[in-house]
Write a structure and sequence with these properties.
Blueprint lengths: L1 H5 L6 H60 L2 H22 L8 H31 L5 H16 L5 H27 L2 H20 L8 H105 L14 H142 L4 H119 L40
């Protein structure tokens, strides 16, 4: 009733879920915001606690440093502490910028004031200790001991009476006591030691005053020692006063440190208590809010579950009817939310399934009839494919015969080309021989011409010899009896010259005939050379033609091989097509069976009160396949008619 008054039932599930989760998220956000705020407060107080702890740690370090200084008297320790004090001042200033509450501010101001007092006290202690350490040299044990040693050696080296030596040693012992007491003053700084030193100095002064000036005492040794220890005593008294002032400053520093430590501890305790309070309050509030969130979550889960499960059960029942094949159910959504929309969608799905099953049943009847026709067409196509395969086989056989003939023609052309090549080579060799003969004949002609020229020279010599012989005969005749023998010799010479001329003429005649014949032979050989060149040119042309014929035959052979290969592939493809047609026929039969099975499955759905109609299965028509002819290499020897 409350939900109806609030109008929640009219909301969609999305809005209801958003509303429920939004409230839960708001609660979680509130818890988170409260927790984060508390964490920031805790962090703030923790930071303040850290500040107090760090300040306390710094004070402890300063206290430890003071103890170290007391043990070592090393002024650098105090100098280092001065630097740390500056850092501590920065720490206080930085943490003063934090968010301090009204009850924290007075305590923080107190800490700051006490730290200033502590810092001033520390500075005073530092200055006093610095002054005290600078005064230690005035009461140095080493220097005073050195003065006494010099005094002692001077007395030993000075001739004195025993009485004088005793007085001088007594005087030295008093000064040595003052030196020892100064060490106690340096270590403890008590008034009693100063009084003892004053008493010793008074005794030494009285003894110094009683020393007679005319007794031969070494006053050049006594006076410097006395003057030094007089100043030594004054330095010791000044050191004592400085020591007391440093002690007072140290006491003030300790008191201010204790007071500052107490204030810091109070701040630390206060911030820790605030942290504990905030943590307890935060835990309590978060527990309460968490319990409220859990209760609200359980209530929202129960309500949302109730809204979802009831419509889901109704839709589940509808789905079970559809799964059983009952499409006659009619449902109506009870609400307008998502589950109501789901119920409406289920109703639409039921109606569409009803219509779809009806359409499928009609389509199945058409599919059953169509599959029978497809099977018959596939069988017819298979028969025609077989016939086409037989024709391709016959064509392949004819192409094989044509390929064989072209190959033989190509081989003959290659042989003729080789013979023409040999003839070309022989013609070339014959031409070379003829050209060699022509060159030889030309050489013979040249030699004959040279012989003719030589014979002409011989004729000229014979003629001149004959003239000389004639002249000799004339001269012999003139000489008379004395020249007769010379005349006989001249006659013989004329006879020899005449015979030589005659022989030269005969040789010239023969050479001329030989040259004429050689020229005739050269002309014939030249004509033979031209003829051989023509033969060589013709044979070369024939060789080129035979090469072209052989190349064309090779091209024809390769082309026919490609055609034969293509026909073989076509035959293979045809065979595959035939096989695929057979498979298609079988698949059509299987499809027909599946269509019948689908019709049976569709009949399982009940879309009306009438019983389902049985669909008859038509018998497929399968024509006989044509016989495939065998592949033969010879088809009557008449492949040219292809």
């Amino acid at each position: 009733m409350l939900l109806e008054l609030l109008g929640l039932k009219k909301l969609k599930i999305t809005a209801k879920l958003y509303l429920g989760f939004s409230v839960a998220i708001v609660i979680v956000v509130l818890v988170s915001a409260f927790g984060i705020n508390a964490l920031f407060d805790i962090k703030n107080h923790t930071t303040k606690n850290d500040f107090a702890n760090n300040l306390s740690a710094e004070l402890d370090k300063l206290r430890s440093a003071r103890l170290t200084y007391l043990a070592t008297n090393d002024l650098s320790v105090l100098e280092k502490n001065r630097q740390e004090l500056a850092q501590t001042t920065g720490l206080i200033e930085n943490n003063s910028k934090l968010s301090w509450q009204s009850d924290d501010l007075p305590l923080l101001e107190t800490i700051k004031q006490k730290f200033v007092v502590y810092q001033n006290s520390y500075e005073q202690v530092y200055q006093k200790e610095k002054e005290r350490l600078s005064m230690i040299e005035g009461i140095s044990q080493e220097i005073s001991q050195e003065k006494l040693d010099n005094y002692y050696h001077a007395i030993q080296n000075t001739p004195l009476t025993e009485s004088q030596v005793n007085k001088l040693f007594s005087f030295m012992l008093l000064l040595s006591d003052v030196r020892d007491i100064a060490h106690d003053v340096q270590m403890h700084g008590e008034q009693a030691y100063v009084d003892q030193a004053s008493e010793k100095m008074a005794q030494a002064k009285k003894m110094y005053s009683d020393f007679p000036r005319d007794t031969g005492l070494p006053f050049n040794v006594i006076d410097p020692v006395w003057q030094y220890f007089g100043q030594f005593m004054q330095n010791m008294q000044s050191y004592y006063h400085t020591y007391q002032e440093s002690a007072q400053a140290t006491n003030m520093l300790s008191a201010s440190a204790q007071s500052l430590t107490q204030a810091v501890q109070v701040l630390n305790d206060l911030e820790a208590e605030k942290n504990r309070t905030i943590i307890f309050h935060t835990i309590s509030v978060m527990i309460v809010i968490s319990i409220i969130a859990i209760l609200f979550g359980l209530l929202a889960a129960w309500y949302i579950t109730r809204l979802i499960t009831k419509p889901i059960k109704e839709n589940l029942q509808l789905a079970e009817h559809i799964a059983d094949g009952d499409l006659t159910q009619h449902i109506k959504p009870a609400s307008n939310d998502e589950l109501g929309q789901l119920t409406s969608a289920m109703a639409k799905m039921n109606a569409r399934l009803h219509k779809m099953i009806s359409d499928i049943q009609g389509s199945v009847e058409h599919v059953v009839g169509a599959t029978g026709k497809i099977a018959a067409s596939n069988d017819d196509l298979a028969s025609r494919t077989e016939q086409q395969s037989a024709a391709v086989v016959e064509t392949a056989a004819s192409m094989e015969e044509l390929t064989s003939a072209v190959k033989r023609n190509a081989e003959n052309a290659h042989q003729a080309s080789q013979l023409a090549t040999g003839a070309t080579q022989d013609a070339g060799k014959g031409g070379d021989i003829v050209r060699g003969v022509i060159k030889t004949m030309d050489s013979i002609t040249d030699s004959s011409k040279k012989i003719t020229e030589i014979i002409n020279v011989i004729n000229s010599i014979s003629f001149q010899t004959n003239i000389l012989a004639l002249n000799a005969a004339v001269e012999a005749a003139r000489a008379g009896e004395q020249g007769r023998g010379f005349a006989v010799v001249a006659g013989e010479v004329r006879m020899l010259a005449s015979r030589s001329a005659q022989a030269a003429k005969e040789i010239e005649t023969l050479i001329t005939e030989s040259v004429s014949r050689v020229q005739t032979g050269s002309s014939q050989v030249y004509e033979a050379g031209k003829t051989m060149e023509n033969i060589f040119t013709s044979v070369s042309h024939v060789n080129d033609i035979m090469k072209e014929i052989a190349s064309a035959s090779d091209e024809q052979s390769r082309g026919i091989d490609q055609i034969s290969h293509a026909i073989s592939e076509l035959d293979t493809t045809t065979q595959q097509n035939a096989s695929m047609v057979v498979d298609s026929s079988h698949n059509a039969g299987a499809l027909e069976e599946e269509a019948a099975r689908l019709a049976g499955l569709v009949d399982m759905f009940r879309i009306s009160a009438a019983p389902a109609q049985q669909h008859p299965r038509p018998a497929p028509v399968r024509p006989a396949l044509a016989n495939k002819p065998a592949l033969t290499g010879d088809n009557g020897g008449q492949w040219e008619s292809f």
